[in-house]
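Hi R.,

Here's the chain you asked about this morning:
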Amino acid sequence: FSHSESVFMINFRVDDMGAIIEQLTGAVIVFHEGPEYHENGVFEWIIDPEGNKVELLEQMLWDEKNKR
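And here is the predicted structure, written out as tokens:
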């Protein structure tokens, strides 16, 4: 949970990572890592205003279209 002040991480599954990133860009959010593309989906990590690390996951099939 590096870069977090907490001993836990919050995980959310999202439907549209691009739309979430766009919404969070205007908020007081620190983007930590990502997006990263893996066989089970796209991941993005942020730090919320309280210092908690939050993992966002958009699940998708690992096919040629989704490999980036």
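One quick note: The chain has one helix and four strands.

Cheers,
M.
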